[in-house]
Amino acid sequence: MGGLVILDAAQTTRQLPFDGLVEALRHGFIEGCQLPERHHHTLTREGELDATLLLMPAWTDPGKGRSYLGVKLVTVVPGNAARELPGLVSTYILFDGLTGEQLALMDGNTITGRRTAATSALAASYLSRPDSSKLLVLGAGRVGSLIPEAYQAVRPIETVAVWDINPDAARRLTDQLVNQGFRASVADDLERAVKSADIVSTATLATTPIVRGAWLQPGTHVDLIGAFTPQMREADDDVIRRASLYIDTTEAFHEAGDIVQPIEHGIISKETVRGTLAQLCKTSQPARGSDDEITCFKAVGSGLADLVSAKMVYRRLR
Ligand SMILES: NC(=O)c1ccc[n+]([C@@H]2O[C@H](COP(=O)([O-])OP(=O)(O)OC[C@H]3O[C@@H](n4cnc5c(N)ncnc54)[C@H](O)[C@@H]3O)[C@@H](O)[C@H]2O)c1
């Protein structure tokens, strides 16, 4: 196959089945890649909030096997809400890592959503109880809607409860999950839903805690995907205090309110965090000590997972 391949959202989705993606990410986190800091550019707008251009580059060095270089480009335009247009648009460009030849251009939102859900499933393959069958999803948006299918690649998920600040969004996702074959229902009582879940996964825009540590039963795994600035929280201090803590990358120490704030307030120290996802993938020891242990994984997202996903799309097409 030569030339530049262009894939829309549906075509990108078809090349990223979750079972294959979770395994590709497992290898990718073990191998690592070059990851310069992401670039943020502020774009001023007359009479509306500033927009942002975000560039996320990543590459593997030429050596054994083919190397790849990729950049995710994201535009975030808050003013688009008034125009009834999406506020965030993203494209992924993949190049040959040696020659710089452009290989593929694909839908960045699809890459982000699927790699995020698959990264959480990968972490849960080390941290959640192997018999986990009851999943609670908080946040019924783009990422939340993919979590049940991603987790099904690693755990025997049978029932899914969905909670969202917007009950219509929770109902819509529940209907979609029933169509996909899940036993799914809307969670009206959040405390009860957390108490009866094996895995609690949050992908919301919450700025104050929605999951309380006091509600967690022994053996629960908590997966925190939202709260991407130091000011935002999805879990309270008791979650962080009670759980064995893991993070996707050390960026979480700077960006994730659920980690930054408890450290600032002396609830935990950096050393309380037991490891990163790369470390989990590299050790053969089981990370979970007992069926009663409460575990928590906090992700802020990584350009490595984007590159692994884009590479998988391109390789499957060939
Ligand atoms: N860690 C990562 O790698 C990664 C990657 C992508 C997105 N994210 C984050 O995941 C979150 C969800 O992203 P998305 O693209 O699915 O967004 P989205 O806008 O599609 O969905 C967000 C959902 O959360 C709900 N919500 C908003 N505020 C809430 C609150 N206070 N309590 C409960 N529900 C609330 C909304 O009603 C909506 O249904 C965002 O915070 C996003 O930044 C993280």
Overview of this protein structure:
With 318 residues, the protein is α/β, with parallel strands linked by helices. The chain has two domains: 5-111 and 304-317, ornithine cyclodeaminase, domain 1 (2-Layer Sandwich); 128-301, NAD(P)-binding Rossmann-like Domain (Rossmann fold, 3-Layer(aba) Sandwich). Helix content is 33%, strand content 23%. It has eleven helices and 14 strands. The chain has helices at residues 9-14, 18-31, 108-127, 147-152, 167-179, 190-195, 237-242, 252-255, 257-264, 277-282, 303-317, and strands spanning 5-7, 39-43, 51-59, 68-76, 88-96, 102-107, 134-138, 159-163, 183-186, 199-202, 221-224, 244-247, 275-276, 295-298. The strands form two sheets. The protein has an eight-stranded parallel sheet with strand order 9-8-7-10-11-14-12-13. A six-stranded mixed sheet has the order 1-6-5-4-3-2. A hairpin with an 8-residue loop joins strand 3 and strand 4 (68-76). The chain is globular and about 55 Å long. It starts with a strand and ends with a helix.
